[in-house]
Amino acid sequence: MRTRIHCCCAHPGREESPDLALAIEQVLASLNAEHVRYLVVGGVAVVLHGHLRTTADLDLVVELVPDNARRAISALSRLGFRPRAPVPAEQFADADARQSWMDDKGLTVFSLWSDRLPDVEVDLFVKEPFRFEEVYARALRVPLDTTTAPVVSLEDLIALKRAAGRPVDLADVEALRALSTAGGGAR
Fold first, then answer.
1. Nearest to 24 by CA among 151, 129, 130
2. Which of 7, 30, 89, 130 could, after both became Cys, cross-link 75 (CB 3.0–4.6 A)?
3. What distance in Å separates the CA atoms of residue 21 and residue 146, rounded to the nearest whole number?
4. Contact 136, 39 (CB under 8 A)
5. What long-range pairs does 8-14 form, CB within 8 A, spacing at least 24?
6. Longest CA span, the chain
C-alpha cells in the first residue's frame, strides 16, 4: 500500500501548499536514484508515522561517509538546491568543514533551498545523532506515490524528539506515543 504525504507548509505568510508533498517526493526520489543512504527524520517522519502536523522543511540524516555525502549533495544540486550559508555545497562532504561549522557557528543542520522547489527546504544533519547503521537497519521503508522513503522507526523518532526537547518536539513525542499505544504508526 502506498502512503501519501499529508503535511502542510508552515512557511509564514504562505497558504498550505499541495506541491509540498510532491516536492518532498522529488527530493527523496533523487536521493534514491543516487543510492544515497539517508533517513527521513523530523516533521515529515512524524507525518509518515500517522500524526498530521505542519512542517517547514525536510529533515534528513545522511550517512556521513564522504562518498555518500557527495552523492547526496549531487542529487540535491540537480534539483537546484543550494546552501543557505555562504559556503560551497560540496563542503558538506568534508568532515573537518562540518566540525568547524559545529564548533565555530553552533550549526546542527546544513540548510538548502531551491528556486525550482520553493515549497521545501532540506535540512541535513551535520552530525549523525545516532549510530547510523543500527538506526538504518531498524528503519521503515515507506512506499509513497512515486518513490520509497527510508523513515526512522517510531521508537527512534521518539528518542530523537525527546532529545531535541523543544516544545514542538515534546508535543510530537506525546502524539507519537499515543499512536504507538493505539497500535498506529507506519510500522
1. 151
2. 30
3. 11
4. yes
5. 8/53, 8/54, 8/55, 9/54, 9/55, 9/56, 9/119, 10/54, 10/55, 10/56, 11/56, 11/119
6. 46
What does the block give as the cell for 34?
543516487
Q: What residue ranges do the domains of the chain occupy?
A: 8-178
Q: pLDDT band at 187, cuts 50/70/90?
A: very low
pTM here? 0.89
**Strand spans (E) along the chain:** 8-9, 38-41, 54-55, 57-62, 82-83, 109-113, 121-125, 140-143, 148-151
Q: What architecture (CATH level 2) is domain 8-178?
A: 2-Layer Sandwich (3.30)
- In our burial notation (b when 16+ CB lie closer than 10 A, e otherwise), range 78-95 reads ebebebeeeeebebbbee
User: Do 176 and 185 meet the contact criterion of CB atoms below 8 Å apart?
Assistant: yes
Residues 6+ apart with CB under 8 A from 145: 2, 4, 25
Q: How confident is the model at residue 1 (pLDDT cuts 50, 70, 90)?
A: low
In the structure, what pLDDT confidence band is assigned to residue 34 with cuts at 50, 70 and 90? very high
